[in-house]
Automatic annotation (TrEMBL):
GO biological-process terms attached to the record: protein transport
Reported function: The central subunit of the protein translocation channel SecYEG. Consists of two halves formed by TMs 1-5 and 6-10. These two domains form a lateral gate at the front which open onto the bilayer between TMs 2 and 7, and are clamped together by SecE at the back. The channel is closed by both a pore ring composed of hydrophobic SecY resides and a short helix (helix 2A) on the extracellular side of the membrane which forms a plug. The plug probably moves laterally to allow the channel to open. The ring and the pore may move independently.
The organism of origin for this protein: Caldivirga maquilingensis (strain ATCC 700844 / DSM 13496 / JCM 10307 / IC-167)
Gene3D superfamilies cross-referenced by the UniProt entry: SecY subunit domain (1.10.3370.10)
Topology of this chain in the membrane: Multi-pass membrane protein
The name this protein goes by in its record: Protein translocase subunit SecY
InterPro entries assigned: SecY/SEC61-alpha, SecY_CS, SecY_dom_sf, Translocon_Sec61/SecY_plug_dom
Family: Belongs to the SecY/SEC61-alpha family.
Recorded coiled-coil stretches: none
Transmembrane portions of the chain: 33-54, 66-93, 113-133, 145-165, 171-192, 199-221, 241-261, 282-308, 360-380, 418-436, 442-462
Length: 482
Protein backbone atom coordinates (compact mmCIF):
# COMPACT_ATOMS: atom_id res chain seq x y z
CA UNK A 1 0.00 0.00 0.00
CA UNK A 2 2.99 2.29 0.56
CA UNK A 3 3.76 2.13 -3.15
CA UNK A 4 0.17 3.13 -3.92
CA UNK A 5 0.54 6.17 -1.68
CA UNK A 6 3.85 7.00 -3.36
CA UNK A 7 2.20 7.02 -6.80
CA UNK A 8 -0.59 9.22 -5.47
CA UNK A 9 2.01 11.61 -4.02
CA UNK A 10 3.88 12.00 -7.31
CA UNK A 11 0.69 12.04 -9.42
CA UNK A 12 0.74 15.87 -9.79
CA UNK A 13 4.23 15.49 -11.23
CA UNK A 14 3.11 12.64 -13.49
CA UNK A 15 0.43 14.84 -15.04
CA UNK A 16 3.20 17.19 -16.24
CA UNK A 17 4.90 14.41 -18.20
CA UNK A 18 4.51 14.89 -21.98
CA UNK A 19 2.50 12.09 -23.55
CA UNK A 20 0.99 10.98 -26.83
CA UNK A 21 -2.77 10.25 -26.76
CA UNK A 22 -4.06 6.91 -27.98
CA UNK A 23 -5.91 6.95 -31.33
CA UNK A 24 -9.69 7.33 -31.00
CA UNK A 25 -10.33 4.68 -33.65
CA UNK A 26 -8.32 1.77 -35.09
CA UNK A 27 -5.47 2.97 -37.30
CA UNK A 28 -5.08 1.23 -40.66
CA UNK A 29 -1.91 -0.67 -41.48
CA UNK A 30 -0.99 1.91 -44.12
CA UNK A 31 -1.30 4.80 -41.66
CA UNK A 32 0.72 2.91 -39.05
CA UNK A 33 3.48 2.35 -41.60
CA UNK A 34 3.54 6.11 -42.35
CA UNK A 35 3.75 7.01 -38.64
CA UNK A 36 6.50 4.42 -38.16
CA UNK A 37 8.42 5.89 -41.11
CA UNK A 38 8.05 9.42 -39.67
CA UNK A 39 9.28 8.29 -36.25
CA UNK A 40 12.27 6.58 -37.88
CA UNK A 41 13.02 9.77 -39.86
CA UNK A 42 12.95 11.96 -36.75
CA UNK A 43 15.25 9.53 -34.94
CA UNK A 44 17.69 9.55 -37.89
CA UNK A 45 17.70 13.36 -37.84
CA UNK A 46 18.54 13.28 -34.13
CA UNK A 47 21.36 10.82 -34.79
CA UNK A 48 23.03 13.04 -37.40
CA UNK A 49 22.52 16.40 -35.65
CA UNK A 50 25.72 17.20 -33.72
CA UNK A 51 25.59 18.58 -30.21
CA UNK A 52 26.36 22.29 -30.21
CA UNK A 53 29.43 23.17 -28.17
CA UNK A 54 31.49 19.96 -28.37
CA UNK A 55 34.75 19.33 -30.20
CA UNK A 56 33.78 17.24 -33.23
CA UNK A 57 37.00 15.21 -33.23
CA UNK A 58 36.75 14.25 -29.58
CA UNK A 59 36.43 10.60 -28.60
CA UNK A 60 36.57 8.79 -25.28
CA UNK A 61 38.15 5.47 -24.25
CA UNK A 62 34.93 4.88 -22.27
CA UNK A 63 32.87 4.80 -25.48
CA UNK A 64 31.69 1.22 -25.98
CA UNK A 65 30.37 0.22 -29.44
CA UNK A 66 28.37 -2.68 -27.97
CA UNK A 67 26.47 -0.40 -25.59
CA UNK A 68 26.01 2.14 -28.41
CA UNK A 69 24.42 -0.55 -30.61
CA UNK A 70 22.14 -1.84 -27.85
CA UNK A 71 21.03 1.65 -26.80
CA UNK A 72 20.81 2.96 -30.40
CA UNK A 73 22.98 5.92 -29.44
CA UNK A 74 25.22 7.98 -31.69
CA UNK A 75 28.22 9.63 -30.08
CA UNK A 76 28.31 13.44 -30.21
CA UNK A 77 24.73 13.90 -31.51
CA UNK A 78 21.28 14.64 -30.10
CA UNK A 79 20.86 10.85 -29.95
CA UNK A 80 23.81 10.61 -27.55
CA UNK A 81 21.70 8.84 -24.90
CA UNK A 82 19.65 6.87 -27.43
CA UNK A 83 17.06 4.58 -25.87
CA UNK A 84 19.23 3.84 -22.83
CA UNK A 85 17.00 5.76 -20.37
CA UNK A 86 13.87 4.01 -21.73
CA UNK A 87 15.39 0.52 -21.49
CA UNK A 88 16.83 1.02 -18.00
CA UNK A 89 13.60 2.62 -16.71
CA UNK A 90 11.52 -0.16 -18.29
CA UNK A 91 13.63 -2.90 -16.71
CA UNK A 92 13.51 -1.22 -13.29
CA UNK A 93 9.75 -0.74 -13.39
CA UNK A 94 9.12 -4.23 -14.75
CA UNK A 95 11.16 -5.79 -11.96
CA UNK A 96 9.33 -3.64 -9.41
CA UNK A 97 5.95 -4.70 -10.80
CA UNK A 98 6.76 -8.42 -11.05
CA UNK A 99 8.35 -8.53 -7.60
CA UNK A 100 5.13 -6.95 -6.23
CA UNK A 101 7.04 -4.09 -4.62
CA UNK A 102 4.48 -1.81 -6.21
CA UNK A 103 0.78 -2.37 -5.58
CA UNK A 104 -0.46 -1.72 -9.12
CA UNK A 105 -3.03 -3.52 -11.28
CA UNK A 106 -1.84 -3.31 -14.88
CA UNK A 107 -5.27 -4.50 -16.06
CA UNK A 108 -6.83 -1.35 -14.60
CA UNK A 109 -6.62 1.47 -17.21
CA UNK A 110 -6.07 4.11 -14.52
CA UNK A 111 -3.25 2.18 -12.83
CA UNK A 112 -1.75 1.37 -16.21
CA UNK A 113 -1.70 5.07 -17.17
CA UNK A 114 -0.03 5.94 -13.86
CA UNK A 115 2.52 3.17 -14.29
CA UNK A 116 3.35 4.32 -17.82
CA UNK A 117 3.71 7.95 -16.71
CA UNK A 118 5.92 6.89 -13.79
CA UNK A 119 8.11 4.88 -16.17
CA UNK A 120 8.55 7.99 -18.33
CA UNK A 121 9.43 10.05 -15.26
CA UNK A 122 12.06 7.48 -14.25
CA UNK A 123 13.42 7.53 -17.83
CA UNK A 124 13.77 11.33 -17.76
CA UNK A 125 15.52 11.20 -14.37
CA UNK A 126 17.90 8.52 -15.68
CA UNK A 127 18.58 10.69 -18.76
CA UNK A 128 19.45 13.63 -16.49
CA UNK A 129 21.91 11.58 -14.45
CA UNK A 130 23.35 9.79 -17.48
CA UNK A 131 23.96 13.10 -19.25
CA UNK A 132 25.61 14.50 -16.12
CA UNK A 133 27.80 11.37 -15.86
CA UNK A 134 28.92 11.74 -19.49
CA UNK A 135 29.88 15.36 -18.91
CA UNK A 136 31.61 14.74 -15.56
CA UNK A 137 33.73 11.88 -16.95
CA UNK A 138 34.71 13.99 -20.00
CA UNK A 139 33.33 11.49 -22.51
CA UNK A 140 32.54 14.56 -24.62
CA UNK A 141 35.09 17.33 -25.02
CA UNK A 142 33.41 20.73 -24.67
CA UNK A 143 34.76 23.73 -26.57
CA UNK A 144 34.69 25.76 -23.34
CA UNK A 145 33.46 25.16 -19.79
CA UNK A 146 30.55 27.58 -20.16
CA UNK A 147 28.91 25.33 -22.77
CA UNK A 148 28.83 22.20 -20.59
CA UNK A 149 25.34 22.93 -19.24
CA UNK A 150 24.02 23.67 -22.75
CA UNK A 151 25.40 20.35 -24.02
CA UNK A 152 23.71 18.58 -21.09
CA UNK A 153 20.40 20.26 -21.92
CA UNK A 154 20.70 19.17 -25.56
CA UNK A 155 21.24 15.54 -24.50
CA UNK A 156 18.19 15.74 -22.23
CA UNK A 157 16.13 17.27 -25.05
CA UNK A 158 17.12 14.48 -27.43
CA UNK A 159 16.24 11.85 -24.81
CA UNK A 160 12.77 13.37 -24.26
CA UNK A 161 12.10 13.37 -28.02
CA UNK A 162 13.10 9.69 -28.23
CA UNK A 163 10.82 8.88 -25.26
CA UNK A 164 7.90 10.59 -27.05
CA UNK A 165 8.65 8.77 -30.31
CA UNK A 166 8.60 5.45 -28.46
CA UNK A 167 5.32 6.50 -26.83
CA UNK A 168 3.88 7.37 -30.25
CA UNK A 169 4.60 3.94 -31.68
CA UNK A 170 3.69 1.98 -28.55
CA UNK A 171 0.30 3.73 -28.25
CA UNK A 172 -0.82 2.16 -31.55
CA UNK A 173 0.08 4.87 -34.05
CA UNK A 174 3.01 2.85 -35.36
CA UNK A 175 4.04 -0.79 -35.64
CA UNK A 176 5.82 -2.69 -32.87
CA UNK A 177 7.72 -0.58 -30.37
CA UNK A 178 9.99 2.42 -30.67
CA UNK A 179 12.76 0.60 -28.82
CA UNK A 180 12.84 -2.21 -31.39
CA UNK A 181 12.59 0.24 -34.30
CA UNK A 182 15.47 2.46 -33.16
CA UNK A 183 17.72 -0.50 -32.36
CA UNK A 184 16.98 -1.96 -35.81
CA UNK A 185 17.78 1.36 -37.52
CA UNK A 186 21.01 1.70 -35.56
CA UNK A 187 22.19 -1.80 -36.48
CA UNK A 188 21.20 -1.61 -40.15
CA UNK A 189 22.94 1.75 -40.48
CA UNK A 190 26.10 0.33 -38.92
CA UNK A 191 26.04 -2.69 -41.27
CA UNK A 192 25.37 -0.45 -44.29
CA UNK A 193 28.30 1.82 -43.39
CA UNK A 194 30.60 -1.16 -42.85
CA UNK A 195 29.62 -2.58 -46.22
CA UNK A 196 29.25 0.35 -48.62
CA UNK A 197 30.56 3.60 -47.03
CA UNK A 198 33.23 5.02 -49.44
CA UNK A 199 34.90 7.35 -46.90
CA UNK A 200 38.52 7.18 -45.78
CA UNK A 201 39.51 6.68 -42.14
CA UNK A 202 42.76 6.19 -40.26
CA UNK A 203 45.71 6.27 -42.66
CA UNK A 204 43.56 6.74 -45.75
CA UNK A 205 41.80 3.36 -45.60
CA UNK A 206 38.31 3.01 -47.03
CA UNK A 207 35.66 2.27 -44.39
CA UNK A 208 33.22 0.14 -46.43
CA UNK A 209 34.42 -3.35 -47.33
CA UNK A 210 32.98 -3.21 -50.88
CA UNK A 211 34.85 0.02 -51.84
CA UNK A 212 37.93 -1.34 -50.03
CA UNK A 213 37.67 -4.61 -51.98
CA UNK A 214 37.38 -2.77 -55.30
CA UNK A 215 40.43 -0.65 -54.43
CA UNK A 216 42.36 -3.74 -53.28
CA UNK A 217 41.60 -5.62 -56.50
CA UNK A 218 42.77 -2.64 -58.54
CA UNK A 219 45.97 -2.29 -56.47
CA UNK A 220 46.64 -6.04 -56.74
CA UNK A 221 46.21 -5.91 -60.52
CA UNK A 222 48.57 -2.94 -60.83
CA UNK A 223 51.23 -4.24 -58.41
CA UNK A 224 50.86 -7.93 -59.41
CA UNK A 225 50.89 -8.93 -55.74
CA UNK A 226 48.29 -10.30 -53.33
CA UNK A 227 49.35 -7.94 -50.52
CA UNK A 228 46.49 -5.44 -51.07
CA UNK A 229 43.91 -8.26 -50.97
CA UNK A 230 45.45 -9.85 -47.87
CA UNK A 231 45.40 -6.48 -46.09
CA UNK A 232 41.58 -6.38 -46.09
CA UNK A 233 41.01 -9.97 -44.93
CA UNK A 234 40.98 -8.81 -41.29
CA UNK A 235 41.26 -5.15 -40.31
CA UNK A 236 41.41 -3.98 -36.72
CA UNK A 237 38.49 -1.70 -35.88
CA UNK A 238 37.49 -1.69 -39.55
CA UNK A 239 35.26 -4.01 -41.63
CA UNK A 240 37.14 -6.92 -43.17
CA UNK A 241 36.32 -9.82 -45.49
CA UNK A 242 36.21 -12.25 -42.56
CA UNK A 243 33.68 -9.97 -40.88
CA UNK A 244 31.51 -9.91 -44.03
CA UNK A 245 31.48 -13.70 -44.31
CA UNK A 246 30.88 -14.09 -40.56
CA UNK A 247 27.97 -11.61 -40.71
CA UNK A 248 26.24 -13.61 -43.47
CA UNK A 249 26.89 -17.04 -41.93
CA UNK A 250 26.05 -16.08 -38.33
CA UNK A 251 23.01 -14.09 -39.49
CA UNK A 252 21.62 -17.16 -41.26
CA UNK A 253 22.37 -19.37 -38.26
CA UNK A 254 20.65 -16.94 -35.86
CA UNK A 255 17.57 -16.80 -38.10
CA UNK A 256 17.45 -20.60 -38.20
CA UNK A 257 17.76 -20.94 -34.42
CA UNK A 258 15.28 -18.11 -33.75
CA UNK A 259 12.61 -19.97 -35.73
CA UNK A 260 13.21 -23.28 -33.96
CA UNK A 261 10.57 -24.35 -31.44
CA UNK A 262 10.05 -27.09 -28.87
CA UNK A 263 6.40 -28.15 -28.74
CA UNK A 264 4.92 -29.53 -25.52
CA UNK A 265 1.77 -31.69 -25.76
CA UNK A 266 -1.15 -30.20 -23.80
CA UNK A 267 -4.93 -30.48 -23.79
CA UNK A 268 -7.93 -28.15 -23.29
CA UNK A 269 -9.90 -29.20 -20.22
CA UNK A 270 -13.06 -27.28 -21.12
CA UNK A 271 -13.20 -28.79 -24.62
CA UNK A 272 -13.27 -32.40 -23.54
CA UNK A 273 -9.50 -32.87 -23.48
CA UNK A 274 -8.87 -31.54 -27.00
CA UNK A 275 -5.14 -32.15 -27.61
CA UNK A 276 -2.76 -29.50 -28.87
CA UNK A 277 0.91 -28.58 -28.69
CA UNK A 278 2.25 -25.47 -26.97
CA UNK A 279 5.35 -23.92 -28.64
CA UNK A 280 8.42 -22.74 -26.74
CA UNK A 281 11.17 -20.97 -28.68
CA UNK A 282 14.64 -22.52 -28.48
CA UNK A 283 15.95 -18.96 -27.97
CA UNK A 284 13.71 -18.68 -24.91
CA UNK A 285 15.39 -15.55 -23.50
CA UNK A 286 17.85 -14.47 -26.16
CA UNK A 287 17.89 -10.66 -26.05
CA UNK A 288 17.76 -9.33 -22.49
CA UNK A 289 20.42 -11.63 -20.94
CA UNK A 290 22.93 -10.71 -23.64
CA UNK A 291 22.07 -7.00 -23.20
CA UNK A 292 22.76 -7.36 -19.47
CA UNK A 293 25.98 -9.21 -20.29
CA UNK A 294 27.28 -6.50 -22.62
CA UNK A 295 26.35 -3.77 -20.15
CA UNK A 296 28.05 -5.64 -17.29
CA UNK A 297 31.24 -6.08 -19.31
CA UNK A 298 31.18 -2.37 -20.22
CA UNK A 299 30.67 -1.35 -16.57
CA UNK A 300 33.55 -3.56 -15.42
CA UNK A 301 35.80 -2.13 -18.15
CA UNK A 302 34.87 1.44 -17.16
CA UNK A 303 35.52 0.61 -13.51
CA UNK A 304 38.95 -0.84 -14.28
CA UNK A 305 39.74 2.12 -16.54
CA UNK A 306 38.81 4.46 -13.68
CA UNK A 307 41.26 2.60 -11.41
CA UNK A 308 44.02 3.07 -13.98
CA UNK A 309 43.40 6.76 -14.62
CA UNK A 310 43.04 7.55 -10.89
CA UNK A 311 45.63 5.37 -9.18
CA UNK A 312 47.97 4.02 -11.84
CA UNK A 313 48.22 6.47 -14.77
CA UNK A 314 51.91 5.75 -15.40
CA UNK A 315 51.80 1.96 -14.86
CA UNK A 316 54.14 2.33 -11.92
CA UNK A 317 52.36 0.00 -9.48
CA UNK A 318 52.94 -3.70 -10.24
CA UNK A 319 49.85 -4.86 -8.33
CA UNK A 320 47.57 -2.36 -10.06
CA UNK A 321 49.20 -3.23 -13.40
CA UNK A 322 47.78 -6.74 -13.06
CA UNK A 323 44.30 -5.19 -12.67
CA UNK A 324 44.40 -2.30 -15.13
CA UNK A 325 47.24 -1.38 -17.44
CA UNK A 326 46.89 0.85 -20.51
CA UNK A 327 49.81 1.45 -22.82
CA UNK A 328 50.18 3.73 -25.83
CA UNK A 329 51.36 1.99 -28.99
CA UNK A 330 52.10 3.37 -32.45
CA UNK A 331 50.62 1.64 -35.50
CA UNK A 332 51.27 2.28 -39.17
CA UNK A 333 47.56 2.56 -40.05
CA UNK A 334 45.96 4.10 -36.96
CA UNK A 335 48.77 6.15 -35.42
CA UNK A 336 48.92 6.12 -31.61
CA UNK A 337 46.19 4.16 -29.82
CA UNK A 338 45.52 3.21 -26.22
CA UNK A 339 45.96 -0.55 -25.90
CA UNK A 340 45.26 -2.60 -22.74
CA UNK A 341 48.23 -4.69 -21.63
CA UNK A 342 47.62 -8.42 -22.34
CA UNK A 343 48.90 -9.23 -18.83
CA UNK A 344 46.20 -7.13 -17.10
CA UNK A 345 42.61 -7.98 -16.23
CA UNK A 346 41.18 -5.05 -18.23
CA UNK A 347 42.49 -6.68 -21.43
CA UNK A 348 39.80 -9.36 -21.28
CA UNK A 349 36.99 -6.80 -20.86
CA UNK A 350 38.01 -4.86 -23.98
CA UNK A 351 35.57 -5.23 -26.87
CA UNK A 352 38.29 -6.17 -29.37
CA UNK A 353 41.91 -5.29 -28.52
CA UNK A 354 44.49 -4.44 -31.17
CA UNK A 355 46.55 -7.53 -30.32
CA UNK A 356 44.23 -10.54 -30.05
CA UNK A 357 45.75 -13.57 -28.29
CA UNK A 358 44.32 -17.12 -28.07
CA UNK A 359 43.86 -16.54 -24.34
CA UNK A 360 41.71 -13.50 -25.06
CA UNK A 361 39.47 -15.44 -27.46
CA UNK A 362 38.92 -18.28 -24.97
CA UNK A 363 38.34 -16.03 -21.95
CA UNK A 364 36.14 -13.60 -23.92
CA UNK A 365 33.85 -16.37 -25.17
CA UNK A 366 33.68 -18.15 -21.80
CA UNK A 367 32.98 -14.87 -20.02
CA UNK A 368 30.10 -14.02 -22.35
CA UNK A 369 28.64 -17.52 -22.18
CA UNK A 370 28.76 -17.70 -18.36
CA UNK A 371 27.34 -14.20 -17.84
CA UNK A 372 24.63 -14.74 -20.46
CA UNK A 373 23.51 -18.03 -18.88
CA UNK A 374 23.48 -16.49 -15.39
CA UNK A 375 21.43 -13.50 -16.55
CA UNK A 376 19.12 -15.82 -18.49
CA UNK A 377 18.24 -17.73 -15.31
CA UNK A 378 17.85 -14.50 -13.33
CA UNK A 379 15.57 -12.93 -15.92
CA UNK A 380 13.40 -16.05 -16.26
CA UNK A 381 12.74 -16.05 -12.52
CA UNK A 382 12.25 -12.30 -12.19
CA UNK A 383 10.17 -11.58 -15.30
CA UNK A 384 7.45 -14.20 -14.95
CA UNK A 385 8.93 -16.74 -17.38
CA UNK A 386 9.68 -19.53 -14.91
CA UNK A 387 7.99 -22.95 -15.06
CA UNK A 388 5.70 -21.99 -12.17
CA UNK A 389 4.61 -18.76 -13.87
CA UNK A 390 4.03 -20.50 -17.20
CA UNK A 391 2.06 -23.25 -15.45
CA UNK A 392 -0.23 -20.76 -13.71
CA UNK A 393 -0.88 -19.00 -17.03
CA UNK A 394 -1.66 -22.26 -18.81
CA UNK A 395 -3.99 -23.54 -16.07
CA UNK A 396 -5.88 -20.24 -16.04
CA UNK A 397 -6.33 -20.69 -19.80
CA UNK A 398 -7.77 -24.18 -19.30
CA UNK A 399 -4.69 -26.13 -20.39
CA UNK A 400 -3.33 -29.29 -18.78
CA UNK A 401 -1.01 -32.23 -19.51
CA UNK A 402 -2.81 -35.25 -21.00
CA UNK A 403 -3.01 -37.95 -18.32
CA UNK A 404 -2.08 -35.62 -15.43
CA UNK A 405 -4.16 -33.73 -12.90
CA UNK A 406 -5.10 -30.23 -14.11
CA UNK A 407 -3.17 -28.23 -11.49
CA UNK A 408 -0.47 -25.59 -11.71
CA UNK A 409 1.82 -27.61 -9.45
CA UNK A 410 1.84 -30.79 -11.55
CA UNK A 411 2.16 -28.78 -14.77
CA UNK A 412 5.08 -26.78 -13.31
CA UNK A 413 6.96 -30.01 -12.49
CA UNK A 414 6.48 -31.15 -16.09
CA UNK A 415 7.49 -27.77 -17.56
CA UNK A 416 10.54 -27.27 -15.35
CA UNK A 417 12.82 -29.55 -17.35
CA UNK A 418 11.82 -27.80 -20.59
CA UNK A 419 12.14 -24.27 -19.23
CA UNK A 420 15.48 -24.96 -17.50
CA UNK A 421 16.93 -26.60 -20.61
CA UNK A 422 15.73 -23.84 -22.93
CA UNK A 423 16.96 -21.13 -20.55
CA UNK A 424 20.44 -22.66 -20.46
CA UNK A 425 20.51 -23.30 -24.22
CA UNK A 426 19.34 -19.82 -25.19
CA UNK A 427 21.77 -18.15 -22.79
CA UNK A 428 24.66 -20.27 -24.03
CA UNK A 429 23.89 -19.70 -27.72
CA UNK A 430 23.37 -15.96 -27.30
CA UNK A 431 26.62 -15.54 -25.36
CA UNK A 432 28.64 -17.70 -27.76
CA UNK A 433 27.30 -15.98 -30.91
CA UNK A 434 27.83 -12.50 -29.46
CA UNK A 435 31.41 -13.19 -28.35
CA UNK A 436 32.34 -15.06 -31.54
CA UNK A 437 30.87 -12.24 -33.61
CA UNK A 438 33.06 -9.70 -31.81
CA UNK A 439 36.20 -11.75 -32.36
CA UNK A 440 35.44 -12.31 -36.06
CA UNK A 441 34.57 -8.67 -36.62
CA UNK A 442 30.87 -9.14 -37.43
CA UNK A 443 29.30 -5.97 -38.81
CA UNK A 444 27.05 -4.32 -36.25
CA UNK A 445 28.65 -6.54 -33.52
CA UNK A 446 27.52 -10.04 -32.57
CA UNK A 447 24.92 -8.74 -30.14
CA UNK A 448 23.61 -6.33 -32.75
CA UNK A 449 23.22 -9.18 -35.25
CA UNK A 450 21.13 -11.19 -32.75
CA UNK A 451 18.95 -8.16 -32.04
CA UNK A 452 18.52 -7.34 -35.74
CA UNK A 453 17.39 -10.84 -36.73
CA UNK A 454 14.99 -11.12 -33.81
CA UNK A 455 13.47 -7.69 -34.45
CA UNK A 456 13.04 -8.40 -38.19
CA UNK A 457 11.24 -11.66 -37.37
CA UNK A 458 9.11 -9.79 -34.83
CA UNK A 459 8.14 -7.12 -37.37
CA UNK A 460 7.36 -9.74 -40.01
CA UNK A 461 5.07 -11.54 -37.55
CA UNK A 462 3.32 -8.28 -36.62
CA UNK A 463 2.83 -7.33 -40.29
CA UNK A 464 1.33 -10.74 -41.13
CA UNK A 465 -0.95 -10.52 -38.09
CA UNK A 466 -2.14 -7.02 -39.01
CA UNK A 467 -2.90 -8.10 -42.57
CA UNK A 468 -4.90 -11.04 -41.24
CA UNK A 469 -6.88 -8.82 -38.85
CA UNK A 470 -7.66 -6.35 -41.64
CA UNK A 471 -8.90 -9.18 -43.87
CA UNK A 472 -10.90 -10.82 -41.05
CA UNK A 473 -11.86 -8.15 -38.45
CA UNK A 474 -13.87 -10.68 -36.46
CA UNK A 475 -10.67 -12.48 -35.44
CA UNK A 476 -9.75 -9.61 -33.09
CA UNK A 477 -12.96 -10.11 -31.16
CA UNK A 478 -12.55 -13.92 -31.06
CA UNK A 479 -8.89 -13.68 -29.89
CA UNK A 480 -9.59 -10.82 -27.50
CA UNK A 481 -7.14 -8.46 -29.24
CA UNK A 482 -7.85 -4.74 -28.82
Amino acid sequence: MASKRFIEMVEPLLTLMPTVPRPNRPVTLGSRLIWTFLAATVYLLLSVTPLYGIVASSSSPLFNPLVAIIFASTNGTLAQLGIGPIIIAGIIMELVAFSELMDVDLNDPKDQARFTALTKLVAVIIAMFEGAFIMSTHQLTVANAGLAFIVWLQMLFGAVIVILLDDLISKGWGIGSGISLFILISIIRSIFQSTFMPVTVGAGELLGIIPALVAAVYSAAVSHTLAPLLSIVYRFNLPGLIGLIATIVLGGFIAYVELMEVRIPLSFVQYGGYKMSYPFKVMYVSVLPIIFTAYTVALIYNGLYFIWTTYNPHNANALLNSIACIRVITTAKFGTINEPCPSSLIYYFTVVPYNITPQYVVVHILMYVVLSVVFAYLWVNLAGLSAEDQARTMVSSGLSIPGFRASARSLAVHLKRYVNSLTFTSGLLAGFIAALGDVLGVYGTGIGLILMVEIIIQYYTIAMQEQLFEAYPGLKRILGVE
